[in-house]
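Morning!

As promised:
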Amino acid sequence: MKDINDPQKVQMKILKMTYLFSLLPIVSSLLAGEYDILFGFIFGLVIATLLLRLKYNNIIRALSMEEDSAEKFIRNRYFIEYALYFAVLFSAARNANLDFLAAAVGLFMIKFVVILWSVVDLLRDTFQSKFDEYK
Amino acid sequence: MIEFSPEVAETVITTASYIAAGAALIAGVGPGIGMGFAAGKATSAVRRQPQARGSIITTMLLGQVISGSTGIYSLVIAIFLIFGV
């Protein structure tokens, strides 16, 4: 990861890649005419984006605190986020116009992208070191 | 063999699914404790090495994003069990 020292840049990169990967389910559900899947997915994705931003702000705030209070602060904020996730999934489950699984996948998209990015980075580093050894 | 009437069987299944949903929600507690612990350690790491602040924040952000997913998995399972979506 090149921009590890700049969290804002990493965040923007993650969001860009997430939206890029999200185009596939969005376009395919649009073409298939499954609007409840489309709305559910976009709902989950928007909430995931906002929660990533919230998480970043919480981390910045926590770093100016003492160790114990930072621990409590992040723990409490996590439970608030958990309640927000519950509210999102609950509303997706109760609303007929939103697909529950699509909303869940939308919430997971950022996590999938981060994992994929890590795997690609790991593979690239491994192959690069093998290639350098061979040279 | 004991035979239950359909109403009793349905009540038992509903109760069991509510209990299972409650048990699934416990899975959301673990990441919170872990994230708090990581945040506390990151705070002391930034105090020790202020020049590494950026990389600590990035690592912590990515770690928190990934570790939060187990909570969502548990929520999805719990909501499936409660509403049978």
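Chain A is about 85% helix and 0% strand.

Hope this helps with the figure draft.
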